[in-house]
Amino acid sequence: MPSRAPAPLARRTAAALACLALLVLGACPEDQPPDDLDPEVVADVARAGGDAEGDAWSGEYDLQSEPGACDCPTRMGFDLCALFDVFGATGRVTHAEGYLTLVSLSSASFGLSGAVDRDGSFELAAIYGLDSLLSSGSVYARMPGAFADERSFTGELRYRLLGELPGGPVDCRAAFSVAGQRLPGG
After folding, report:
1. Residues 88-98: pLDDT tens digits?
2. Number of structural domains, the chain?
3. Is residue 7 part of a domain?
């Protein structure tokens, strides 16, 4: 039995429904807030400055962290979640007129920068490139937090690994709660 072509009304109805579905799907991303670990958002946070004056929070700090959630896979026998825990070391905080940096003294490749406000709240971020012969991509880091006083702070450090690694593409996240205690004389 030969197949029958759909009736013109049925074709127009199907086309109209398809267009409506595309319109609805196209509008959804605009209605949602941006991902706080989106590459552009992280870059903006890293460059931002706050309204704090002076350099009160500058010094060397003992940095401790507690791992939180991590959905990163194991690749080539390496647990990617372990890649992110760089704390348990000493870090240097530099505060200058609303701009704050945190650099690990034990890992020259780890540093965050961003805004600090008068109330001690801060928002730091960084982007680390992973391009090599075996991989491509970046790690996006963001840490909101606050100073309790001139000697201590807490924050939540969140990472997003986005790239192509041996074994396929990766888009995963890890989080750590972080505490910093200023060292004597630091």
Report:
1. 678 899 999 99
2. 1
3. no
Cα angle 142-178-99, degrees, rounded to a multiple of 5: 50
pTM of the full predicted structure?
A: 0.77
Q: What CATH number does residue 62 fall under?
A: 2.40.160
Residue 68 lies in a domain: yes
Give the type of residue at 71: D
Q: Which residue has the higher pLDDT, 43 or 4?
A: 43
CA distances to 26, 46, 118, 149, 165 from 134, rounded to whole Å, are 35, 28, 44, 44, 7
Q: Assess whether pLDDT exceeds 60 at residue 85.
A: yes
Q: What residues have CB less than 8 Å from 185, skipping those under 6 apart? A: none
Alpha-carbon gap, residue 91 to 97, rounded angstroms = 20
Q: What string of H, E and C letters represents the secondary structure of 52-93?
A: CCCCCCCEEEEEEEEEEEECCCEECCEEHHHHHCCCCEEEEE
